[in-house]
Amino acid sequence: MSSDRPHPLHPLPPVGRTFVGGFESTHHPAAGVDALEVTGFGDADLDHLVGSGVRHLRFPLRWPRIERSPGVFDWTETDRALEGLRDRGTVPIVDLVHHTSYPGWLVDGFRDPRFGPAFLRYAEAVAHRYPWLPAYTLFNEPFATLFLAGHEALWPPYDRGIDGFRRLLLSVLPWLSAAAACWRELLPEAHHVWVDTAEHHTGTGPGVQHAELANDRRHVALDLALGHDLDPARPFLGRLLADGGEALLDLPPLRVDLLGLDYYSHSEWHYDERGSHAPSPESIGLAAVAEQYADRYRLPLMLSETNVRGLPTDRTSWLRYTLEQYELALSRGVPLHGYCWFPTVDSADWDSLLARAAGRVDPVGVVSIAPDGSRQRTAFTDAWEQAAAGVPVADLPAWRFQPPCDADLAGLLPSLTHWPWQDPDPQQAVSAVRVDLPARPVARTLEEAVPAAEPDLVVLSHLRWPWVWQRPQHVVSRLARQRAAGGARTWFVEEPVTGDVAAPELGSEDVDGVTRVWLVLPRSVVTARDGHVGFDSPAAAGYGDLLAEHLRAAGRSAGPDVWLYTPMALDVAQPLEPGRLVYDVMDDLASFAHAPAGLVLRQRRLLSDADVVFTGGPSLHRGVLPLRRDRVHLFRSGVETGHYAASRRLHRPHDRPVAGYVGVIDERLDLTLLGELAAALPDWTIRVVGPVAKIDPAQLPQAGNLEYPGLVAYADLPEVMAGFDVALMPFALNEATRSISPTKTLEYLAAGLPVVSTRVTDVVDDYAEVVHLADDGAGFAAACRAVLEDDLGARDRRAQPLQARQEWDAIAAEMARLIEDPGAGVSQLRTEEPA
């Protein structure tokens, strides 16, 4: 297969509407298989492409199969595949590394110090083996891949933030540059096709600055590789070049012959006061995005990937839209050399971001995969073949988008008013399923909710039971009372601790109707500087087995219901062999300070595996829905109105006004605002009640009128709030607060207090009529003085409907019903948003 005979076709399509094929091949890091194996790729798939007139093909070389051991290459499979492509008369654009497709012995992925030398060795070996190759992509989507693996912690090595992104760029780009120089020398006639995401970002209000940053960020990998426009004053590049990143300026520029643009509906983002939105409601369209890249780089272009996840009719309409935009770009002089619907055959397992090789079909292909793995033609297959044969765009069907594409793509519709829209044939659509409400009234107490006979409940939580009384304690204490009536026990399992033990052992205590359980580890095995040990700590690897044995020794039946508050406990849950698995998403834990590596990946697994998912607020709910749409139920934070009503009776006049906060003091609080507030209200007392967590207490602002009484028991909170005149929610507006739905909002209102808050999204959405919003210390101070004159009766009348729908008793009762019947219909109590 090392023949050097030239390839019979030109390595690149001409400018115009030439169709290009492609197959998804990303390697599953955890499972050791790739998408080609999972989807059963074979010769028939290639024959279909060639039979449709497609000659150019993005084709993967499977590094994990080629180099199973360092420096030992097996070319058998690759020889056969590439020879088959030549025999069919196709032009392969070989793809050497597609996302996480590296050998398993690179245990730290792109961060592994062996990655760079191994990649260069592999690239050089391929060039020597196949000197006839006409075109190549050395590393697919460098920006997107390293951003997801290094900044977003979605792929190994699960690095996070700009520091993590910088580490991966420094680990990969110098070696990519060296590999490009090697190929330029060994295959001088071959064309280098650089493929990456084609993004565009817009913003209004507070989102303008982030859009500017993201629009600079999208270009950074290619600009560094080309040596293009490396001005340190650029918004994102300047940050990247700090702390050792300046070494990225020393890369020898490589040559790119064609720039491949990967454009999807989610390639355009919009940011505003409500957060981020993708697809963007203000899309400028593929043609305008392609024109931006053409103007910036002055290179030949290709639409190297596009698809939409949906029904065959949805895919057909996206085909029509992108082809229409493609031809519009051509008319504006954009040099587009090919259109690639990617992939040709359905992919699989993107629901877990390739965390698990479960074989779940991803409905994006030209050809669909039937439940038995066979290929299945659809209406989209017909439309794609017609388009590949040259049928004009105007002759392609224009089917109305179906859920969820109709909502996702609503921003495009104003530009498509000229389309001859038609409804899909009923056989090509999926009808909405109508689920009637139960005939009986919705349960208002746990005794009404479910039958008495229940299995044990095991709750795994990152929060400890005796700490701040929050959502887990409110819900679980009520479920525990209900289950105890049927003879079941509730176990509340906490993160490990260290102690004076020779070997790991379990500790436990009975409290508040539950049995607390925790793992005690020898102090010598803990390496974390702060002494914190998570469920995922290597030292705690046997936690799940010890817990399962503990339950068996207590005579408990197998198959308990298992309820998780953190995805990091998923490995602990599995040895318990859960009868039903519940995930209550109470926080966006991945955005918290010191979030563990791999949290996002485990969350996707848990969202996939759970029998029922609860979400703690509208923002969290919106974040979960793209990953899972069935059996997901929104339960906003609740309140125990009767408990806090005591504050009204206990309130007594005091010498000076008090503005108070109750809750955890961590990175979610705007400490600068607190300091400004204390300075702006010198005649007030600012009382911040609660434990300090994950921040250095030395960071807390200090002033003569600022008090930090510390942790207070839940039973004493009414008395604490009775000492307030105004309640505060001084949250920072950052990643850690983007999805929070503060429990304290309704608690403050039940205590009869006026509330002043920053503009947290869920507070604005749900409580704008009863909470005063301010942005800084001066604004908070003005609001505090103003709300003292508020009409308490009027505020109570506005708050009462919110409190009535969100009592913890009713929430726990409805959750219990849904655990028993995960497919139950929507109740008025849950006030869910449409999926």
UniProtKB/TrEMBL annotation:
It comes from the Bacteria. Pfam families: Glyco_trans_1_4. Keywords: Transferase. This is Glycosyltransferase involved in cell wall biosynthesis. InterPro entries: GH (IPR017853). One of its GO terms (molecular function) is transferase activity.
